[in-house]
């Protein structure tokens, strides 16, 4: 289901993905499973026995096949029946030698998992694993909107946010357990805006999405990382082609001033052109994607300082028009100059294996 969603929406590639209510952990673009976590999930778990015992409860209705996983059985149940069903099911499975966990969420969803599973347990496992490898994150922010997120907020030394549109069972938990914890907030904004609000509240980063920055020149001056510079450039490029920013010479002149006079852009076709000439061509494309389903996004951005004052930024740059997607592996070389910020020296692009279309037409940069 996650892979299907990736094909439908412009999602970023996570380093780690936890799915199936915390019973599956995998890594990177190819989603390599964590075999040690699988072994933990198999402890005192037998899916066939769980299927057999849950089938004896007429109150439980199996969810769609896509919701059933090796270490998760998912049902719908009337809220008024949850307490009685949960109590009896625990007793029956315990007698059969299993150790399980039952999670109720969304006002009607009931999941049966191994006792060691769940989103909170998965997070604790990952933090311990990263700590052992000497890679413990500086900060961790957990974000939730339903009952199966509750465990995330019980993990020590993490920040937490319930988005404004959180469901009743999570709000009840917060009122009883989290309201007086200064590391957990109930955001005033919903969905992703609530998460961005929390990032600002806990001083983990800016509380404004780059997509919501109205003054490109102002945000450009604030950049301290060439990776941010690249991301903000391509967001500006999207808004330029959608006609959402003014066709203003100050913008193009600022971009040209950021490019080395000898800077080169290597198109995915292999053709080379001056970076400044490429920027000069922007004018004729202003607003050409207005009122169209056009999105640009950057993924897997990695900025590396190769020598003092010289940076290489590598990323996947995506464009989508309608249902057609294109992707280029992009490498940008910068030099950092005092009082000048980051100067673009070279941009090189090649078609990515992930690109659904490898068509040079209408690909500007």
Automatic annotation (TrEMBL):
Protein name: Sucrose-phosphatase
Entry keyword Hydrolase: yes
Catalysed reactions listed for this entry: sucrose 6(F)-phosphate + H2O = sucrose + phosphate
Pathway membership: Glycan biosynthesis; sucrose biosynthesis; sucrose from D-fructose 6-phosphate and UDP-alpha-D-glucose: step 2/2
NCBIfam families (UniProt xref): HAD-SF-IIB (TIGR01484), SPP-subfamily (TIGR01482), SPP_plant-cyano (TIGR01485)
GO biological process per UniProt: sucrose biosynthetic process
InterPro entries: HAD-like_sf, HAD-SF_hydro_IIB, HAD_sf, NTF2-like_dom_sf, SPP-like_dom, SPP_C, Sucrose_Phosphatase, Sucrose_phosphatase_pln/cyn
Cofactor: Mg(2+)
Source lineage: Eukaryota, Viridiplantae, Streptophyta, Embryophyta, Tracheophyta
Species of the source: Raphanus sativus
NADP recorded as keyword: no
Highest rank taxon of the organism: Eukaryota
Annotated Sucrose phosphatase-like domain residues: 1-203
Enzyme class label: hydrolase
